[in-house]
Amino acid sequence: MPNRQQNPKAKQRSSLTFRMNILFFSIFVLFSVLIFRLGYLQIVKGEDYVRELERTEEVRVNTSVPRGRIFDRYGRILVDNQPENAITYTKMQTTKSAEILEIAEKLANLIDQPTDKVTHRDKLDFWIIRNQEAALKKVSQEEMTKFRNENEELETKEINQEFDRRIRDRITEKELEQLTEFDLEVLAIYREMMTGYNLSPQIIKGENVTPEEFARVSEQLADLPGVNTTTDWKRVRQSPLAILGRTTVPSKGVPKSKLNFYLARDYSRNDRVGESYFEAQYEEILQGEKSVVKNITNKKGQVVETVTTFDGLPGKDLVTTLDVELQQKADEILERQLLDLKSKRGSELLDRAFLVAMSPKTGELLSVVGKKIEKDKETGKPYIVDYSYGTFTTAYEAGSTVKAATVLMGYNEGIIKPGTRMLDSPMRIGNITLNTLFNKHGSVILDDLTALERSSNIYMFKIAMGIGGRTYSPGMRFSLAPGTLQTIRNEYAQFGLGVPTGLDLPGETVGYQAEPDTDVKLLNLAIGQFDTYTTMQLAQYISTIANGGYRIQPRMLKEIRNPSKDGKYLGQVVEEVSPTILNKIENSESEIAHVQEGLRRVYFGTNGSAKRQFATADYTGAGKTGTAEVVYYGPQREKWRTNTINIVHVGYAPFEDPEIAYAIIYPWATTIFENNYLPHANLTARELVDSYFELKTKYAEEGLSSSKVEKSIIKHSDEKLDEDEEVETVNE
């Protein structure tokens, strides 16, 4: 019985072992076949597959993808694209110079090509191509053999360069004159074709292509390999505002200074890119995406088929924070006041003026204006150019406009408190006498609000002395505690004075900070007559006080949108930019409110320094005037070290719920110090705020709102500006 029971189990184990052996053998055979196949593909067929792979190359092509457009906050076009007929040429890897020259000659018979870009070096090279035998005879073999023997350390490449240089040096002007007008046209076309890159279309003629030229070339495309007729675009500005920036043209391409930066981001050398300011800052958003094509080549490297794998996408549209109508009004106001000030006696140094208006709650820039008077070098006649970028790239002493920051600094450092009263009378320190403009000889008791209203220098000097650990006494030996200068600058930095504002445009400066050679000079820092500040910094500073103590980043970008689908409405919102709070000043709400009241008195108080301009306004507001006695170091070097005056104004409105904050500077306004009241900065401020509220009423009646998601595209002006800055002649 046991033997009969064990036999089936033994048979079962034997069968399982056999089946496992069959399975392992099958796996071994399969792996052997797989290894054999891989070896066959890699060793026997490897080179064939590599060659097949190399027949296909996928590249991004520099097609005419429209750049994103730029709008103001209400949908009015600031920068547009204008379509233009264009003739392009695409060079293949195997294309020879002789073939390109032949095509250039054919094109020269079909189009008129400007020759103004042809250089002397181009003519030399072209003469050599046309006269190869004559060119070679200009340098003998014996001459080059001798040169080679005398310079054995030189490589073959360097010897060939010397050979080419000697040929060019010996081509005479008379020989170059043999080139006909037709030859120069061929050369102009040829040089454009040669500057292109393989498989990337190069624009041969993109401006002023006539319908006849376009038609003639289109009809001959079969005989012009690589040539194509297409639609290109040209960047057209509807506004002369310089901070909108510029783009390069295809003939210039990527700036050499940023070549590696752009090449690393898959740009081509002849791509159009933002060259300055807003166009440069948001280049990657505006640029769009190139089409991608797959070029299939034969064994000789010749392209036999081109397949588009991605059609490309136009750049996204950008909505700025600017109000173009307010910009135009502010532009006119500032220019008119500048010219009026320039007509006054003592204005020989005056040549510029600046204005920045922004929302104190969001940092949105509503208007950025800069004007500069220049003279034509040939005629000597003056003309005005847009200098809006000077609002953040140039800095000046701001005078008494900084006194609100000085008072808040006094609170924060425990030197004074709201309501503190001090004596304003001339201060005698050594052989120096310091005083206040309205009180050069007498004595008057002032509290902090009156000190702001009447612009007391002495009150501010005493705050600075307190920070330095000193109390004034007549004839005292003067010194301040170490670190006083840095403490004051740190306090001012809370408001954006002397530090970057965070502006979303390149090139911002933070102003100049010198080291005072005496502690007495340090006191001038407290009244804005030592460090220099930009107009943008002053706008951020007054906005910080207006909004209750929050330093907001000023910015030009409001929204990013997809391109319009119908040309009537802006595209869908991709991103809406939110306000950025950089810091909160360390003062309490009650301290800030107290200083705000002092600034309100500047406009509406009995002795307010801007009362004459604002007392009749039908809105509330607050601000601070300033005059800074400075030493001139402007563009007229022969007049350096001349004593002059900057006139400045900062403010905001309405007082209870601020909507607009502004800063205005007229640097080097006059060289006359006595009895020379100049209201131009105050007048500019009043006219600006009047214009703001007038436009606000108008927009409400028209139903125009910057907060709407759906915005109509508004063509604000039929005027089109080229890449040159618009200038305006000044009547002498």
From TrEMBL:
Sequence similarity: Belongs to the transpeptidase family.
Record's keyword annotation contains Endoplasmic reticulum: no
Subcellular location: Cell membrane; Membrane
Membrane spanning stretches: 21-40
Keywords: Cell membrane, Cell shape, Cell wall biogenesis/degradation, Membrane, Peptidoglycan synthesis, Transmembrane, Transmembrane helix
Membrane topology value: Single-pass membrane protein
Recorded superkingdom: Bacteria
Segments forming domain Penicillin-binding protein transpeptidase: 354-674
Cell wall biogenesis/degradation found in the keyword field: yes
SUPFAM superfamilies according to UniProt: beta-lactamase/transpeptidase-like, Penicillin binding protein dimerisation domain
Principal cellular location given in the protein's record: membrane
InterPro entries registered for this protein in UniProt: Beta-lactam/transpept, Beta-lactam/transpept-like, PBP_dimer, PBP_dimer_sf, PCN-bd_Tpept
Location of the Penicillin-binding protein dimerisation domain: 64-307
Official protein name in the record: Penicillin-binding protein 2
